[in-house]
Fold each of these.
Amino acid sequence: MLKLRDVKISFLSSEGLLAPVDSVDIDLKEKETFTIIGESGCGKSLIANSILGLLPKDAEISGRIYLEEEDLLSLPEKSLKKIRGRRVGMVFQNPSSSLNPVFTMRSQLAEIMKYSGMSPALQNMVDLMQKVGINDPLHRLAQYPHQLSGGLKQRFAVAFGTASDPDILIADEPTTGLDITLKMQLIDMLAQLHSQRSILLITHDLDVAYTLSDKIGVMYAGEIVEVAPVSSFFSKPLHPYSRKLIESHPLREMKPIPGNSPHIAERPQGCRFSSRCEHGDLCCCSTHPEMVQVDEDRFVRCLAYA
Ligand SMILES: Nc1ncnc2c1ncn2[C@@H]1O[C@H](COP(=O)(O)OP(=O)(O)OP(=O)(O)O)[C@@H](O)[C@H]1O
Ligand code: NI
């Protein structure tokens, strides 16, 4: 349904051309939830934003992003606009920054519905509010963003992303900043959406990933290092980084991963995780591992499996 092939995103900086996202391949199938997990700064949001052509202006992108047979990277802005919201919806990482402070929620939602080719009739809005669990919709629609709690803003963000009933939803950290009750409610809501459409979910919350995903893609320093179905991933993670990520969970050993991920300008020539990996040998520092298939639907980028 949605296929990313060899996607590379780079920026020109004083240190030269830096690529926070490097040769990323992702396959999102119909009615499947594919979740990207990984530390802050590994490139998750850049990937999410690249799909709908919403990268910063100074970003360069190469590779191919197929929606069905169409390569979105080769489409003019006019055609992308038709896809945005209608076929692919987006829930942005920071709802406050994507809401306009001077308009009521109703006028912002109306704008999005019109843009997506839907009638902004009040009843349609109220139905949508119900789907995302916003109580007292007439009151909430009349409010401005600053009058809403974080949880409500997050719900509105999901309402905006799903207003036109898109086939694909991209949700970037939809549960960040929510308390545990709201987080559980949002997870329930996403789980309901999940049965009807494909979701590309981005989170660094392993509980969210475990609950909602069909497949997990682990990112480290701009690369996907493991792809696996959710159950086999959590029962038997293959990449040393995945194992450490799971061990760092509070309900497991709560062991933080020692060290930091390498700065973009100082990535090692070999495996990018080599400096933090206790299993690495000399080869790991000099040979960059390719993604290898180790089982029908399991892929890992580690020389131990090459
Ligand atoms: N406009 C930009 N100019 C230059 N570099 C950028 C720009 N935007 C992002 N980057 C670089 O890309 C890296 C990845 O950013 P991205 O927002 O995709 O990370 P992330 O994985 O979503 O992190 P988080 O979990 O904190 O949201 C950042 O560490 C930053 O160095
Ligand atoms: Ni992000």
Amino acid sequence: MAEIQRPQNKQSISDCCEGSNCRTSSNAAIQPFPAPLDAPSNAQSVQYRISNMDCPTEEKLIRNKLEGMNGIIRLDFNLMNRILSVHHQLKSLESVTTALKAIGMDAQLVDSEAHQPKVPESASLTAAQKILLAISGVAALAAEVLAWTTHTDGSPLVIALAFISIATGGLPTLKKGWIALKTFTLNINFLMSLAVIGAMAIGQWPEAAMVVFLFAVAELIESLSLNRARNAVHGLLKLAPDVVTLQDAIGGWQEKSVETAVVGDMMRVKPGERIALDGIVTSGESSVNQAPITGESMPVDKRIGDAVYAGSINERGLLDIKVSTNSSNSTLARIVRVIEETQNNKAATQRFVDTFARYYTPAVVVMAILVAVIPPLVFGAEFTPWLYKALVMLVIACPCALVISTPVTVVSGLTAAARLGILIKGGEFLEVGYKLKAIALDKTGTLTAGQPSVVDVKTISNNERETILLLAASLDANSDHPLANAIVKAGPESSLHKVVTNFEALPGRGVKGEIDGTIYFLGNHRLIEELKVCNPAIEALLDVIEGTAQTAVMLATEKTVVGIIAIADSLRESAIESVRQLNQLGITTVMLTGDNNRTAQQIGAHVGISVIKAELLPEDKLTEIKNLQSTYGVVGMLGDGINDAPALAQADVGFAMGAAGSDTAIETADVALMNDDLEKLPVFIKLSRATRSILIQNISAAIGIKAIFFVLAFMGIATLWMAVFADVGASLLVVFNGLRLLRK
Ligand SMILES: Nc1ncnc2c1ncn2[C@@H]1O[C@H](COP(=O)(O)OP(=O)(O)OP(=O)(O)O)[C@@H](O)[C@H]1O
Ligand SMILES: [Zn+2]
């Protein structure tokens, strides 16, 4: 079965790119921050970690400064991770670093050779910053109280207190505001600075101080909570220990750092220890809790030859394990990398939000100017109150709450999913999940365990049962079809096999080959019909076999059917419950199989599948998905990721099972279910729906609060500090609401 290249007809990757923030999800797992596909080949790329960049505000600032500079080709932003990628043709990066410095961006070059994604240092406060902030708060409050009790906003003491507050809490904002002004960037820092200066100009000193202080607190809390979302993904990596016990050249055991381990090393894991690297058990027996990888809470038994994953816990026995990947390529590291790389693939909501934000700020600023200018000039109204109203509007002109809420929510959702053993390749699939109307499930290996065995052999005319199994096993020894494995296992040992010449696989039908001068065929009803060797007696036998949900495979020559082999595959334990849950969620379940219709109907009825599509040729599965899409709209497909690649790629969301052990599955699927548990499917749908409703809540809250304040400001009811409070409140509300998903 050749690996099939996934067609790039899928919407996602290209359409979502509005020229900037997009990353491609294919061949992802190689570099920590891969260059986008369309980066010109003659360009070099560097990545900077910019610790004070997490709002689109900064993105715009950097764009204004760097874009158009000589030798700079393109910029890509990953705000969640504070990574700026610069695609350039420069000899020296000095101009870039100076330019970034000039706009107050604290940029550090990221070593792109280092494969291990680094944990961004968290933005915690220094003691000095805490003291300054505290002074600012106390002074602002004192100014407010004094002004209120003395009924004068402009007394020297009030002004002095306000000044202290602004100097201790507001300088960073004012500095950034000044930079924004110099670079003609309309951002929150500029707006806030303007509001503060405006308030001072019209004598509202306590107000100015309060705005400064609240804004500083808001920025802080926002960046701390963003860190939480950010670190949640990285936190997964910490599940694998940094040290590992490795065997040295003379057979002793030494504690070493995981980075020094190479493929083929032997590691020893004691009971109770976490496994540091992926590998294969070479001696010992234990049960291993691999919840961090597969999300399954029950420990899994491991013995010689079984694969174990970095991050899982060895519960009982001592295990010696042969290392199969280095630490940066472990399944766990790949999961983290996939999330980090694909989280920037913008989903529909995020594109809406970004577009909205682009028009929102300038629109509000224009309105504020009109409010400040028109009533006094045109209607002869008093100047100060209208200027004050305009300043309040400036404060609510920042779209930050709205813009940051979406990625926080999406990343929280992606991380929550990863913890449950569901690897989602980007927000768009998490978001599309709620729209799924139908899910197609492959039969063999998906609904069934995929380990069929021969249960009966029916002899026709006077052939021996042993002869039939010998011929069938000899033929099928050349095939890697699951049914072929069953037949080979039931037959004699391979040294007794007959010599097969002119072997040929007949897709969707079976196999053929020549033994002792006779051409034999082994396969399904379709095959013997095509050979014209079927008859009513055989069909009667088929009816019996298929009526008990078994699969009938026939051995035939060009003249006659020689025997029938009945094969049974057990259902997956989780199939019935999962299908029930899917149906309950209002999703139509569809079985796709190459097997015959009766068998499929039997199994489908047992599992509770709504629609059954059987006797499909391999290429029919793709067509079937297209048909389902035109009937139901948004359609998912669950397969093993290997045989089903084209159909999986055609589906709006392609799910692959058992991904922990298979690179192909992780790569081909949009959503990789780490273990073989179908129950992850309804879990995904529920998580997707939860994400969706949080996104909607967040967007409505962010826009709603602003709209209310806009009206209040216009009516002259809202004060400056109330506006900042509302703005801060909105930001915090949406961020915490998004983080809620992490607790799922
Ligand atoms: N190597 C083989 N040996 C015997 N029978 C085969 C072989 N390959 C295919 N067949 C017959 O052809 C049928 C269709 O095979 P195909 O691989 O298309 O689907 P499948 O494996 O049965 O089901 P699913 O589509 O659910 O994976 C099988 O059910 C079987 O009867
Ligand atoms: Zn027939």
